Amino acid sequence: MRIGVLASGGGSNLEAILDAGIPVSVVVVDRPCRAIDLADAAGVAHELVEWNGDRLDFTHRVVDALERHGVELVAMAGFMRILDKPIFDAFPGRVLNTHPSLLPSFRGAHAVADALEAGVKVTGCTIHVAVPEVDAGPILAQEAVPVHDDDTVEALHERIKAVEHRLYPDTIKTFMERT
Ligand code: GAR
Prior knowledge:
Structural class: alpha/beta
Strand content: 15-25%
Strand order of the largest sheet: 3-2-1-4-5-6-7
Shape: globular
Number of strands: 7
Largest sheet: 7 strands, mixed
Number of domains: 1
Bound molecules: glycinamide ribonucleotide
Order of helices and strands: EHEHEHEHEHEEH
Oligomer: single chain
CATH topology: Rossmann fold
Number of helices: 6
CATH architecture: 3-Layer(aba) Sandwich
C-alpha cells in the first residue's frame, strides 16, 4: 500500500513512521520545514504545496500531489492545515491523523495548551480516521499521558510525542494489514 505523509513542522512523527519501515511514497508539506530534510535523507520524494488562503484550491493541489505518487493511504503527521471535502472523497476512510489529546477532548490547534489550561490530570494522544469535521472520526487508538503539576506546554507535548512515535506507526501498520 502506497503511503503519503502530510507534515508542516518538526516532522518527528514522520521520522518515527520512516524509522518503523513503513513504505512512504511521498511527503507533502505546506511550508519549508524539517520534514523535507527527513524525506530527502530517507530517499523519499517530497512535494511543497504552499498555502494560498483558498482551502478548496489548496486541498485539490494536495490531492493532486498525492495522486501523482499513486498514494492509497494518507497519514497526517503534524499537518497544521484544515483540508476540505475533496481529500475525503479521493481517499474515503483512508486519511489518518494523530492528535495530541484524548479526543473528543481538546480538539484544535492548541490541544496541549488547552489541556494544561483546563487543569486536567491526564491527557494523551489519539490516532483516528480523519473526516471533514476537524479532529473527529473513528478512533483507532488512544493512550493516556499524565500531566505533571509543574508541566509546561513544551514538556507535556514532548511526552505526548514520545507516545505518538510508537503508537502512530503501530496503528498505521495494523490499519494497512486490515485494509
Ligand atoms: C504532534 O504532536 C501532532 O499530534 C500534532 O502536532 C505535533 C507534530 O509534531 N498535531 C496537531 O496538533 C494537529 N492538530 P511533529 O511535527 O514533530 O510530528
